[in-house]
Write a structure and sequence with these properties.
The structure is a single chain. The protein has about 150 residues and is α+β, with helices and mostly antiparallel strands. The protein folds into two domains: about 1-95, no CATH class; about 105-150, no CATH class. About 50% of the residues lie in helices and about 15% in strands. The protein has helices spanning about 25-35, 50-60, 75-100, 105-115, 120-125, 145-150, and strands spanning about 1-5, 15, 35-40, 65, 70, 135, 140. The strands form two sheets. A five-stranded antiparallel sheet has the order 3-1-2-5-4. The protein has a two-stranded antiparallel ribbon with strand order 6-7. Helix 4 crosses helix 5 (about 120-125). The chain is globular. The two termini are about 20 Å apart.
Length: about 150
């Protein structure tokens, strides 16, 4: 998986080899450790995530910052765009028809649905990145509209 933390400008990209069931858990952990917005920007389905991660990080070794974090070079961004965003879009499309509630949900439900913290959802609302309804102090979200907005980004 490819994760980018948006701190303004071109932010570093984290490359991790994780199995499908672990993606949401890892995103939550990265989000909890970050002071900035965390975005899943790409996925590549493979049988051996650790081996794939080693190959990808070796190919982009010259842009390594530290550990699994890399500079967003043109080569790395092109790789993510050409090879990893299609799989992410397909996953979102598969999830949408049957698994997306068509009614408004509260902030806890949308955070769980997206696999992020409520703090991240609040930051996304404040930045105008996701559509929402404000009912007094309470926020409500229509998951299909939120997914569509995230996919357009």
């Amino acid at each position: 998986m490819f994760v980018q933390v948006h701190a303004g400008g071109l932010s570093p990209i984290k490359i991790e080899g994780v199995r499908g069931a672990q993606i949401a858990e890892r995103l939550r952990a990265i989000d909890a450790d970050s002071a900035f917005e965390v975005y899943l920007i790409g996925l590549i389905p493979v049988d051996d995530p650790a081996a794939a991660m080693q190959a990808i990080t070796a190919a982009h070794a010259t842009s390594r910052l530290r550990h699994d974090w890399f500079l967003p070079t043109i080569d790395l961004l092109a790789y993510v765009q050409s090879d990893a965003q299609t799989s992410l879009q397909e996953l979102l499309a598969q999830a949408r028809p049957d698994h997306v509630p068509d009614h408004a949900v509260d902030i806890d439900e949308i955070a769980e649905f997206l696999g992020v913290s409520t703090s991240t959802v609040r930051r996304m609302v404040k930045a105008g990145e996701i559509p929402h309804l404000r009912m007094g102090k309470a926020l409500r979200f229509v998951p299909a509209e939120v997914l569509a907005a995230l996919q357009r980004r």
